[in-house]
Amino acid sequence: MRHLVLAVVLGIVFGSFGIATGQVKTTPQTAKPWTYWWWMGSAANEKDITYQLEQFAQAGLGGVHIIPIYGVKGYEKQFIPFLSDRWLAMLAHTVRAGRRLGMGVDLTLGTGWPFGGPNVTSEIAAKRWKVDNGKLVTELTKQQVKRAAPGGEGLVLDYFSKRAMDQYVKRFDSTLITLADGPRAVYNDSYEVFGANWSANFLDEFNKRRGYDLTTQLSAFLDTTQSKASILVHQDYHQTLAELLHDGFTTTWTGWARNHKFLSRNQAHGSPGNLIDLYAEADIPETESFGSSQFPIPGLRVDPDYEVDRFGMPNTLAMKFASSAAHVLGKPLVSSETTTWLANHFQVALSQIKPQVDELFTAGINHIFYHGTPYSPPAEPWPGWVFYASTNYGPSSHFWPHLPLLNRYIERCQTRLQASKPDNDLLVYFPIHDLWATRTRSAGGIHQLEVHHVEQWLLPQPFGKLCEQLQQRGYSFDYVSDDLLRKLSVTKGGILSPGGAVFQCILIPHATYLPEQTLQQLDRLARQGARIIFDGAMPQQVPGFHKHDERSANLVRIGKALQQLKSVQVSNDVFTTLRQSTTRVESWAEQGLAFIRKRRGDTTQYFIANLANKFRQGWIPLSVLGLASRYDALTDQTTTLPIRNGKDGKNEVWLALEPGQSCFISVMPGAPAITSGRSPQTTGKSTELLRLPNSWTIQFLSGRPDLRTSATLPKLTSWTSLSDSARYFWGTARYSTTFDFPASQSATTSYVLDLGDVREVAEVRVNGQSVGTAWCLPYRLSIPARLLKATGNQLEIDVTNVSANYMRLYDRQNPGWKKFYDINIVDIRYKPYDASRWEARPSGLLGPVTFWSLIDP
């Protein structure tokens, strides 16, 4: 029986949730971040695998996801063909070594992406349609597996064919499943089957599923003028593709995985189907955070070479397709490919990563996978083997020595997020048929619902606009599809989902088209007491060509009867209607605070991230009452929050949260002690107590190239201004100064040391005592008052920069490090990589460095 590679729970109680198979569990292992692990040429051996896994475990990683890809030039004799006996032995050894270290192992069910390889014949390869002599005929796309590993090259699979999927997995039946030590989960990357829009049996399936022969409406199918007939036929075309993808690929693949005791991790985005339903089939739905969200956090740097127009930006509304499927169905884990191309190679700082992770948490993600870590032999000179896309989380990365700080932060957050269940009030229906009625932009003339360019398909739709407003105003919600509506029921507490989540209302965005079956399901729920709100008007048309007018008339009849029910409302002002309902709202979200609300037993838990530049501190009203405490995952400290009587009789808690910071707030049942209710204008204000006036000494410590000089700085500035050598230095320098500390009027037990601008990580000592490491925005540390003296205080700050400045020199002197097959190494614009032309990046302690006092309310 296949091992699931789950670590033993040692003294920590975690929530343990199951799905139909009972296999998915949350553990200390899943609370830690995992990483993609690219096996370049699969040129692996047992000794190096063990060594690297030990490094990963020591750094605080919980698991690896193996992706075999292209190889490294000069190592051809060490390449191991995918699924060969030797390759399978390497995989089994990895699983065993991981188990010993308390780490999990996942595996892409193929090499590179998407699925395909030498066993994919032309009969089961990806296809598209074309018109030949007035008839629809089938032809191959001829797409090859992208970034394939040795033994994995070949045509891409037909994702719309169950027969193709059945034949594809046979290759693993005689190889992978024979192992006694196999992976926890198998994985499918985002849908990148470009140009594929057909299958060999498409016309037969279309006729069976839609009730008419597509060739009888060929003129409407080929029409690009958005005529009524064209829109309806194309809705049928997309519906058929979506069903074939769901039944032929997703259900078949996940069923195969479960039959063989594997979990399935699936990136459904990019697919020409309803993402909610496709994510719903996976044991672990997985979204993606590609590029930079460009938050307006002061001091947060964005790579100026990142092309938003080309690659788009991460968006929580896209991420919620994965988390919504998990929330509605009770799946305990939702994962994410994290920080792909956040910035250029050798330039990403930990301070840039944390806000992206926080955004994922607010979107319902609780199982972070770094993108990623190349397999690199320990004997390989720096920078080792490098994957073509950043970010590099491996031992050769400049932030590797400090990566455990980020890992511990994520582990603390995910421990809480995985042990709690969603507490959202709204279910927002996704009207995909309206999307299918619009013009397409994707390859092959189909709507591919990708996470990159939501501005092209999601945000312009009434659904997207409404969800943006809901999010901005502080409403918590999940999405629901036509199919998932069938699985809802109604209880005294509200609308019950199959996974046990309870919602208070179903919200139908303005939609032109709605299937009869969907309205019938809404009618069923409404008659059981479910509250349903239609935005603007009831839909008047069904999607699809077959008997359209007859079915639309029936839809109108059902709608008129539905409107007569007390729990149904058609609203011209959704937000006024919501305010009049029992739907909770967190009004402080309008100040730019992102959040997710969850429950664990009788405790309500908020994760709040300040990813904007509006809020810093103040009294905020929570939608739940009780005893409130704050947990800071960065410092692992819990404090009780002051509570006062606020407006409209609502209790308010005091929250201090600077841009870039995050925290948990837990509310437990009980009567809180109410404070005197002093005005927020006179309490809790940070006050600058001291700006360090003296000069600084800088001493270069370890780094590349070797630099052992020192200098006196009248004021803080980038060390790149000190000398030509310093412009290329990557490593650590020590900043030292002395200061007197004024007597304080307050009885505070600690002060805040604000380091200002840091490039990039600062380890701080006060009077010889370590007070912590500042690695994320804002760069602040708490300083115990007992460590400070009236005169003669000594402050030492060891600052480590990123490796970009050294790469400017290294790339000029050693261009041979770029020795990889396929795409080799490219920059963030996908152009040949050349760091020698970069300008020197500011490095070191830029300040200003100040002490602050804080008067608690």
Automatic annotation (TrEMBL):
<dbReference type="Pfam" id="PF22666">
    <property type="entry name" value="Glyco_hydro_2_N2"/>
</dbReference>
<dbReference type="InterPro" id="IPR054593">
    <property type="entry name" value="Beta-mannosidase-like_N2"/>
</dbReference>
<dbReference type="Pfam" id="PF17132">
    <property type="entry name" value="Glyco_hydro_106"/>
</dbReference>
<dbReference type="GO" id="GO:0004553">
    <property type="term" value="F:hydrolase activity, hydrolyzing O-glycosyl compounds"/>
</dbReference>
<protein>
    <submittedName>
        <fullName>Glycoside hydrolase</fullName>
    </submittedName>
</protein>
<feature type="domain" description="Beta-mannosidase-like galactose-binding">
    <location>
        <begin position="734"/>
        <end position="835"/>
    </location>
</feature>
<dbReference type="InterPro" id="IPR053161">
    <property type="entry name" value="Ulvan_degrading_GH"/>
</dbReference>
<dbReference type="InterPro" id="IPR008979">
    <property type="entry name" value="Galactose-bd-like_sf"/>
</dbReference>
<keyword id="KW-0378">Hydrolase</keyword>
